[in-house]
Amino acid sequence: MSYSLLIQSAEKIDWKPLRRDLRKLKIGSKPDLYVKIYQNEHETITTHIERDQFSPKWNFNCDLSAVSALHTLTFRLYHDALGPDEDLGHAEVSIAMLLDMCKASEVTKLDIKHGSKIRGRLLVRLTKISLDQAVQNAADALSELSKPTRPELIASGVKGAVDTADRIKLTDALEGVLSILEPIVKVGDELTKIHPYANAAWKILTSVYNAVKNEREVDENISKLAAAMAELYSSAKNAGIIDAKTASLQESLRAITMLTLECGNFIRNYQGHGFWGRLNETVLRDAGQQMDELTARLRDLRSSLTSKVAIQSLSISIQSLRISAEIQRDIQGLVHSEYLQTLRKIAAPGQSPNKCLSGTRGHIITWIVEWFFTPSDTNIFWLSGVAGSGKSTLAMSISESFRAQQRLGRLIYFRRNLPAGNDSIAVLHEIVYGITGINVEIKRSICAKLAQDPNIINAPLETQFEELLLAPLTSANTQFLCGPYVVVIDALDECPDETRTSITALIANYFHKLPSAFRFLITSRPDPGIAELFRSRPHSILEHALDIKSKETETDIHLYIRSRLQDVRARYRLSDNWPPPQAIGRLVEDAGGLFIWAATALNLVSGFDPQGRLENLLEHPFSSSGDLDQLYTIALQTNPDWQDRTFSQMATKVLGAIILAKDSLTDDMIDKLFNLNTGFSARLLQYLGSVVQWSKGQPARPLHATFGDFLTNQTRCPPSCFIDVQAMSTLLALGCLRTLHKELRFNICQIPSSYLLNSEIPGLQKRIRELEISSPLLIYSVQFWADHLSMATPDEILLSLQNFLFERFLYWLEVLSVRNQVGWAQRSLETVRNTTWVSFPYPL
Ligand SMILES: Nc1ncnc2c1ncn2[C@@H]1O[C@H](COP(=O)(O)OP(=O)(O)OP(=O)(O)O)[C@@H](O)[C@H]1O
Q1: Which residues form a coiled coil (predicted)?
Q2: Which of 208, 215, 260, 535 could form a disulfide with 201 if both were Cys (CB 3.0 to 4.6 A apart)?
Q3: Once rounded to an integer, what is the mean pLDDT over residues 749-769?
């Protein structure tokens, strides 16, 4: 029996982040919610994510089939930023019961419970689809697709005529699509959000068209796929979508061009001009399945267009179709996920990069997207660029667009203050984990390897690369990989020295061995070590440096500044003739092609008194364009007290804690750490909104890594705010020690989680979680001690701290009633003693 399920929305979800989750979340953000649906505990389908909402509206439709109406449906609610391991709550109901509930009122409400607490309500609707209806749907679709476009040729019955007719049908359909796509491509930059996809789709279809024009044999099904594409375009044209005057129509057009890109790519591969290798029986069977899927997606999109359904649900239906088909095939999903949990993950910092402002970077995005879609032996694109030129933002946009197309689009990004442990194995595992989502065969093969040899995850890199990545991707059953699948590694230069070399070597020496359908985008500053290794592989690595002096960059920065100033004007209700006409041009000139300059300048202007701030900025004589140091100096001096020596000494400590600490600290914690007057850090930070992300009571973080570069470099930064890393580290360490002593007198403390989370002592983790009540500063202090102290302080202090910590371990064990585990405590202390003390973010 088939059912149609609608996950409409959720009513105000009652959720607050736990302290342990804070570092994964953006300050003040609302949750990014999605729902996973399980049928009798088997994961069946997942909605898309509705970001930043307590009352998300998914309007997500899907079909379910179930053997029995007694099957249970479980709806689990997740927050994307917290990962898939723990849900926020769930609702459970049998199919029969839900059908009954939906009879009375179309949409019904289900309580989402977390333990005994009701977190909110989920609005869903379940209806039966009758067999007749399903058969009728299928028959309609079939008859529509089988309509011959050239009846006279089909009817002629001459041998070979079917091939010829199919070729004509295919070329006709392609001509039809191309003639509609061409004007979109020509309009170009006006439709910048659509343009990269339309352009790439147009190029692929043109190459397919040129190739099939002269081919004798064309598969009948390929002609049907092309016909469905042509019909979609003709409907879109009739519905006025091709002219795309409004934002929602542009979204429709984007969905259409993305799907066209998929279809064009598929036809090209099928006809033997793309990524696939030899066509064997397995490949053909999989291709047939994929062809049916694509044809169905085209048909769905078309019928949605004609019934004028909002485009949001269109793109959702595209996604759901693909996801549901994959998931349905993977009946062992739950078992597999157990094995996959053993893979290591890159510890990602809370703050992910932003995406490019719509309309900017169109040229380079088009170029990279096209490059990804063009088969070649070179499978790594290395995008280098100076600090603040916009690499991370570009990386985020590209990975997002490939993720949305279900082409992996995995983004791995490094930031200086990341905890240790992001080494080449973690990167490899992250990719292995990512590729399990591509194809069930790959997932099975990786899980089988992990099941058969659980210790593989501790084997040398080469063995793991071959067995966990290369073998699953090149095995007979997985040759059919319709690339490109894209992995983006951002800010490679921000890995600490000891891991950067090994990760760069992994990329340079191993990635080229992967099937050509796997493409990598690596971004970094032009670091000499990275450059040397990458340039030794010219056949597999294409290098491109972001040009900050180019006309395109200037135009993009112009657009960015204009758009942000418009926002400021609207926010402060300024007059229509603000900003003055020369202002934008002058800011663009001063930015000198550096996005970070423009972003910081606009942060400054958008704070208090934008008119005055803009005037100040325009009056300032910058010695050269893109002079970030002067801009940062201006940003600091928005607080007039910097002239005062005592103030500047205290303020430098606060900035030092923000720049150097691995874990972000709140204003209160910083005050305590340095024994400052309560509220000093908060008063300082409220002036620094253009360079530090912070709000009262929340952890403070530098908005960009270049701010730390500036403050810690004596030649760039004024003496009053220069941070001497070595001296500041000692101060921080001593501050931690002092605070630790003070706090210990009052609090039940917590053992540093990094030592205990892997503990073998039964029940200990649970006890620790229960005790997670005391002082975040204490936790920070101990972790800080463990991570940093020995680098900056003399041996005696280190030794006394180690002994001190040992005492504390004993104390904690007592608190946790596991005192007899002294042996374990001693081992932990050994771990502490043997820790390599080199994980400091800045070289000392
Ligand atoms: N296309 C864009 N649209 C909107 N904002 C952008 C764009 N490019 C960059 N920015 C802004 O400029 C700032 C700097 O960009 P980004 O962090 O991407 O530079 P980067 O080259 O990665 O710097 P670094 O080498 O220091 O890591 C970002 O904070 C971002 O907000």
Answers
A1: none
A2: 260
A3: 40
Ligand 1 pocket, residue 599 CB under 6 Å: yes
Average pLDDT, the chain: 74
pLDDT digits (tens, 9 = 90+) for 207-228: 778 777 766 566 777 888 888 8
Query: Which has the higher per-residue pLDDT, 646 or 213?
Result: 646
Residues 6+ apart with CB under 8 A from 327: 43, 44, 45, 46, 333
- Which atom of ligand 1 approaches the CA of 709 most closely? 26
Instruction: Please state the atom number of ligand 1 nearest to the C-alpha of residue 595.
Output: 12
User: Considering the domain 343-545, what is its CATH architecture?
Assistant: 3-Layer(aba) Sandwich (3.40)
Six-digit token string for 451: 């099941």
Which three-class secondary structure string do you get for 636-674?
Answer: HCCCHHHHCHHHHHHHHHHHHHHHHCCCCEEHHHHHHHC
- Parallel, antiparallel, or unpaired: how do β-strands 485-490 and 518-524 relate? parallel
CA of 594 to the centre of ligand 1 (A): 8
CA of 198 to the centre of ligand 1 (A): 25
600-609 confidence digits (pLDDT tens): 999 999 988 8
- Least reliable range by pLDDT among 114-128, 348-362, 463-477: 348-362
Residues 6 or more apart whose Cβ sits within 8 Å of residue 86? none
Ligand 1 proximity of 178 Cβ (cutoff 6 Å): no
How large is the ipTM?
0.99
Residue-level pLDDT at 295: 83
- Rounded Cα distance between 196 and 401, Å, is 10
Separation of CA 600 and ligand 1 centre (Å):
10
CA distance 546 to 556: 13
What is the dotted CATH code of the domain comprising 2-129? Answer: 2.60.40.150
Q: Give residue 546 CA to ligand 1 midpoint distance, Å.
A: 12
Pick from 418, 527, 595 the residue to mutate for probing ligand 1's pocket: most ligand atoms within 8 Å of its CB: 595
Which ligand 1 atom sits closest to the C-alpha of 523? 22
